[in-house]
Amino acid sequence: MNAIPHFPLMIAGLSKTGASHAEVYSPYSDKLIGTVDKANQDDVNQALATAERLYRDRSKWLSVSERIAILEKSVAMMKDQADMLAAGAAEEGGKPLADSNVEMARCIDSLRACIDGLRNDAPHTIPMGINPASQHRLTTMRKEPIGVVVAISAFNHPLNLIAHQVGPAIATGCPVIVKPAENTPLSCFRLVEIFHKAGLPAEWCQALLTENHDVAEQLATDSRVAFLSFIGSAKVGWYLRSKLAPGARCALEHGGVAPVVVTKEADIDAAIPGLAKGSFYHAGQVCVSVQRVYAHASIARELAEKLSQAAQKMVVGDPLSDKTEVGPIIRKGELTRIASWVQEAVDMGTELLCGGQALAYNCYAPTVLFNPPEQAKVSTSEVFGPVVCIYPFDDLDQAINQANSLEFAFQSSVYSQNIDSAFYVADRLDASAVMINEHTAFRVDWMPFAGLKHSGLGTGGIPYSMEDMQVEKMIVITSKGIS
Questions:
Q1: What CA–CA distance (Å, rounded) separates 4 from 354?
Q2: Which of 107, 174, 205, 287 is catalytic?
Q3: Which residues pair with 114 in a beta bridge?
Q4: Is 253 a catalytic residue?
């Protein structure tokens, strides 16, 4: 029998074990799959003191060439361990193995993007010599690490989110302390181990879970933190932002209630595979998952029925099976909440086309709802489950207004074979990105990824995170030899 893995606190110089630990269970089988020590206030203080001391000692900074070498070796090691890492992420997070394999490939690609960012970065100049005051001067703008980075991550992409938060910190030369989600910490600790084995000194990347929310708040809001990268609930993210120390910067990534507009000119058969994937990928536990589909009344019923047929064909079950398309919900409490929201919509007169029931092993059947009331929770809040709503419309502007009516704005999409209609909708949707003839959850790791309004602050994506984690220093050279 294989021993259950245990991870101590990854705090540089810490010799003791944590006073308490977290038990990590498979959301599908409820089997114990690992344990992780938890940090108390003193442990967090030691991690922050180590990171701050490291940042203040410029003789300890890693050169660009050293950082590139560490990231390149990390990529090679991750490629060698890709199958193990993907299976581990599927087991602890519930994302089907096929999708976890894709996430692992993206994780590697994200680190490659960090390397590319370093290779292609170069100082730029500010114009001088254009008036008497600026004569005989030359400037160069150089980038330096912003300082200590704290990264608080989410459960739904336990590999690639760490790559997106920790990778840019390593690339830019920032000491980073990462706190993964308590449901999925094992993938994070495995990746941090790889960074260390690839040559990154332990004090440059520390990983920990905290004993409670107060200790987590202490970690995020300490005056030694220069940049907070937070992925999680809007309530927690906006609260932490309000508590940041003066001068600290942050990037917040929260959820959305992603809208899709399907015009009467859309190719329904071409749209269904993407809509089904965008609605039910990772059991809908994605911040840009398709949730609200506004379809022209002339095609809404056909679209809804075909999407329902696609949903019913999906294989729901064990995330470690290569046949599974929809895995479990991460926590039993979330499963109960999703079921209650769907039942509320049905009680309010919504037509349930398929699904609407909890299944064995913490799974929920892919669910298609037709025309829920505007005030139902499935219409106003992020379900974060395998539930999609279809709303028929007659007037395109009315559909756009409904799509824009919530306090959330992230990614959205429009399906249409009419280029004028497609661009008309894309131009008017409140969103940071609009996909045309593609579902809302499309993403590659070098593109900007930004929640607007309540959905977030700042811009994710490897090059944008690297920019956030650096400050520019201008050096002005004065010499009579400069014309």
A1: 39
A2: 287
A3: none
A4: yes
Give pLDDT tens digits for 128-159. Answer: 999 999 999 999 999 999 999 999 999 999 99
Contact 323, 290 (CB under 8 A): no
Ranking 18-27, 214-223, 297-306 by mean pLDDT, the lowest is 18-27
Are 342 and 388 contacting, i.e. CB atoms less than 8 angstroms apart? no
Tens of pLDDT, residues 264-312: 999 999 999 999 999 999 999 999 999 999 999 999 999 999 999 999 9
358: which 2 tokens? 């909890």
Question: pLDDT per residue over 231-247, tens digit each?
Answer: 999 999 999 999 999 99
The CA–CA distances, whole Å, from 86 to 95, 274, 347, 369 equal 10, 23, 40, 32
Q: Please tell me the distance from the alpha carbon of residue 114 to that of residue 322, in angstroms, as a whole number.
A: 30
Q: Radius of gyration over alpha carbons of the chain, in Å?
A: 24
Q: How far apart are CA 266 and CA 437, in angstroms?
A: 9
Angle subtended by helix axes 82-93 and 185-197, to nearest 10: 160
- The letter for the amino acid at 237 is G
Amino acid at the residue 390: I
**CA–CA separation, 315 vs 257, rounded Å?**
25
What lies within 8 Å, CB to CB, of 5 at 6+ separation is 33, 34, 35, 186
pLDDT at 3: 86
Question: CB atoms < 10 A from the CB of 31, how many?
Answer: 10
Distance from C-alpha of 62 to C-alpha of 472, rounded to nearest angstrom: 18
Report DSSP state, residue 12: T
341, two tokens: 């929201």
Give the integer Cα–Cα distance in Å for 320 and 323.
9
Cβ pair 246, 226 in contact under 8 A: no
The model's pLDDT over 177-218, given as tens digits with 9 standing for 90+, comes to 999 999 999 999 999 999 999 999 999 999 999 999 999 999
| pLDDT at residue 290 in the model | 98
Residue 1 scores a pLDDT above 90 = no
* CA-wise closest residue to 307 among 363, 380, 388, 414: 388
Which residue in 253, 325, 334, 382 is the catalytic one? 253
